[in-house]
Amino acid sequence: MRIVETPIPLSELEEIREKSGAEVKLTYLGKIERNGITLNRVLVEGSPEEIERFMEKLRLARAGG
Q: How many percent of the chain have pLDDT more than 70?
């Protein structure tokens, strides 16, 4: 289990999850604001390997890959 804080909307995170093929569950926890930026808090649940698979695809998506 891991909590991610990101400006990416949940719908886009779901698309990234599908593209990654990771067996993870995403649960929206709410919004916070940090340094004037609104961030979505999302709980990522799954095995450590599957969470890492999702996080790698998320990192690539944010880097334009």
A: 95
